[in-house]
Structure to design on (660 residues):
């Protein structure tokens, strides 16, 4: 027999090896075999008859597994991924396996780690709301591959719907996967799941060691555990008899893997559900345009939870127009009088506040310090990036170029400048308002780097050892703090200017999510949004918690520009030390696409990457708008080859990229 083997390398080819006489080997097993000049771990994906191969082939050196680690289902899923995301089959397989297995070894002695406890205070609702009941019965009535868009405002009881749907699956002997954006940030959700569903749950999160991760993976594979909760990579968990996939906060950008292998866990989940013929629940208070579009076009079932449970009202949202605020001191650059007085009120009553600052994205855009105006590309509606050397503004999608205006084109008065406010600045200004009397903590990406620090801060805030939590988008996600009565958004405009066509969508969802953190306890919460653009539709609709109005306006814009969900985007990033070569290769590929497709695809660029030079390597992009990714992918493979190189220039392919 001849084994067909793939490797976790960017070579999309299946290699043939002879199986040593007398040895047993199954599809999905790992082996070791000579490849180029070394012995590597490979994956058996099939067999062929010996007589069909007419050349000398090498033999497998070692068979690592008696029983396969890769099921037929996962092999099919990774095969699909390889054609959809420009990966080799082997690379896709390695994305699906725990690290311990990728390296061809098994690990033992898992160290004790961060475990979740049952939520002692959690009382399950005995009675569901009418909307919860209706949603659940829709889900229960439609087994098989169906997608449910569970659109529910923050605090409307989506979690209870997930739990009941999972309980039903477990009672029927099936298993379920639950995906969450970042598990360390949602300890309450996890604790509730454990309280309700018992101990047969594997929780995957970024703080597990490799050995712990592998142990949990094994429990699922052996059917000891029947539910897995985790971040994007848990979509590959080896659940047996999978009967339900839930994706909470389906709009969240963390489901998109930004490094190789670049995939989107929501897309992979939909494919896996299709293979297993099981339903998927996509839950969100601010659904992605892509998913909601499919729901309104009846490709998905639309389930709605329009009210908060226990009749809690949505928080009061007030907007502060920064163009009218006199900003004399450095303190008033951060806190408007309205926000300052609300803070004094809330802290005076010994309640808590969250201050939110969206600092993601690049700070290299130009905005007017008086009216907040930002220059955008007329063709792509993304913020233009500022290039200091040439004093120009540039669109990194289509390469549209203009000079930096002398004065603001909007108000004619202010100077355009680049300015940033960070979480540290917010904290120090806050201490000036409340000298010696306010206890603060910052929650930003620096904190996330330190193991255990996030949990410590969340715990301290829950115990009211901290009065004000200052953070970036991390604070917008999922927490449930009953004593938070004020959420202040320091500068809502920052997210309007992310250089991505999703900027407005991100702003809407960020503001809605962050506002949802307020008023989850007894009292009605308050939200103060500071902005230069109080009339912007993304801000206006989020103030009214009005997703549907936001959607109606945004979907029109997407249609006009031909952006998702009306087309998919494929970004090709060209990288080389010699910028001339990079530009030439990008142009050549663009021309080739035009001639091969006879102009069927619209190609934007070549345009410089927002960070044009990194580690002495220049980067230029082209973006292709496509109707069918798999079809476009076959065409692109013919042009750039499996090794993704043109004229010595390396190409990184990213399907539906995100720049946020
Ligand atoms: Zn201005
Ligand atoms: Zn443009």
């Amino acid at each position: 027999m001849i084994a067909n083997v793939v490797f976790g390398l960017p070579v999309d080819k299946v290699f043939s090896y002879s199986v040593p006489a007398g040895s047993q080997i199954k599809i999905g097993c790992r082996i070791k075999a000579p490849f180029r000049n070394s012995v590597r771990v490979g994956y058996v994906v099939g067999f062929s008859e010996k007589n069909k191969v007419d050349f000398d082939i090498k033999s497998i050196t070692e068979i690592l597994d008696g029983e396969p680690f890769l099921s037929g289902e996962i092999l099919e899923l990774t095969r699909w991924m390889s054609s959809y995301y420009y990966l080799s089959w082997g690379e896709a397989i390695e994305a699906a396996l725990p690290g311990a297995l990728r390296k061809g070894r098994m690990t033992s002695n898992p160290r004790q780690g961060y475990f979740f406890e049952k939520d002692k205070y959690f009382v399950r609702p005995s009675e569901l709301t009418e909307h919860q009941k209706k949603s659940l019965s829709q889900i229960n009535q439609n087994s098989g591959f169906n997608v449910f868009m569970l659109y529910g405002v923050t605090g409307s009881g989506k979690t209870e719907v997930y739990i009941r749907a999972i309980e039903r699956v477990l009672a029927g002997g099936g298993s379920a996967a639950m995906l969450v954006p970042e598990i360390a940030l949602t300890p309450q959700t996890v604790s509730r799941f454990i309280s309700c569903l018992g101990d047969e749950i594997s929780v995957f999160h970024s703080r597990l060691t490799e050995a712990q991760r592998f142990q949990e993976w094994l429990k699922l594979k052996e059917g000891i555990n029947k539910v897995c909760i985790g971040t994007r990579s848990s979509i590959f968990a080896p659940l047996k008899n999978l009967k339900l996939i839930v994706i909470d906060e389906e709009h969240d950008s963390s489901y998109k893997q930004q490094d190789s292998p670049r995939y989107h866990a929501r897309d992979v989940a939909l494919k896996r559900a299709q293979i297993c013929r099981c339903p998927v629940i996509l839950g969100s208070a601010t659904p992605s345009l892509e998913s909601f579009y499919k729901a309104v076009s009846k490709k998905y079932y639309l389930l709605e939870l329009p009210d908060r449970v226990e009749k809690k009202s949505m928080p009061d949202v007030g907007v502060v127009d920064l163009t009218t605020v006199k900003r004399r001191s450095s303190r008033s650059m951060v806190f408007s009088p309205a926000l300052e007085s609300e803070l004094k009120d809330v802290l005076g009553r010994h309640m808590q506040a969250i201050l939110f600052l969206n600092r993601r994205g690049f700070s290299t855009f130009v905005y007017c310090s008086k009216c907040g105006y930002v220059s955008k590309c007329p063709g792509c509606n993304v913020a233009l990036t500022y290039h200091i050397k040439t004093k120009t503004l540039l669109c990194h999608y289509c390469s549209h170029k203009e000079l930096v205006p002398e004065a603001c084109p909007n108000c004619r008065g202010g100077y355009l400048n680049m300015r940033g406010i960070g979480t540290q600045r917010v904290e120090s200004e806050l201490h000036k308002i409340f000298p010696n009397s306010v206890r603060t903590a910052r929650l930003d990406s620096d904190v996330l780097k330190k193991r255990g620090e996030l949990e410590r801060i969340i715990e301290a805030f829950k115990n009211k050892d901290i009065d004000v939590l200052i953070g970036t988008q991390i604070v917008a996600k999922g927490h449930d703090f009953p004593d938070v009565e004020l959420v202040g958004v320091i500068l809502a405009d920052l997210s309007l200017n992310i250089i991505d066509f999703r900027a407005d969508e991100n702003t809407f969802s960020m503001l809605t999510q962050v506002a949802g953190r307020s008023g989850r306890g007894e009292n009605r919460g308050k939200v103060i949004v500071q902005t230069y653009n109080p009339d912007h539709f993304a801000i206006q609709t989020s103030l009214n918690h009005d997703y549907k109005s936001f959607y109606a306006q945004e979907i029109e814009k997407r249609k006009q520009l031909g952006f998702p969900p009306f087309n998919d985007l494929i970004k090709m990033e060209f990288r080389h030390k010699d910028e001339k070569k990079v530009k030439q290769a990008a142009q050549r590929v663009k021309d080739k696409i035009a001639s091969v497709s006879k102009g069927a695809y619209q190609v934007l660029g070549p345009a410089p990457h927002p960070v044009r030079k990194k580690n002495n390597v220049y980067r230029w992009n082209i973006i292709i708008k496509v109707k069918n990714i798999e079809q476009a992918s076959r065409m692109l493979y013919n042009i750039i080859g499996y090794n993704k190189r043109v004229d010595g220039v390396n190409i990184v392919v990213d399907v539906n990229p995100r720049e946020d």
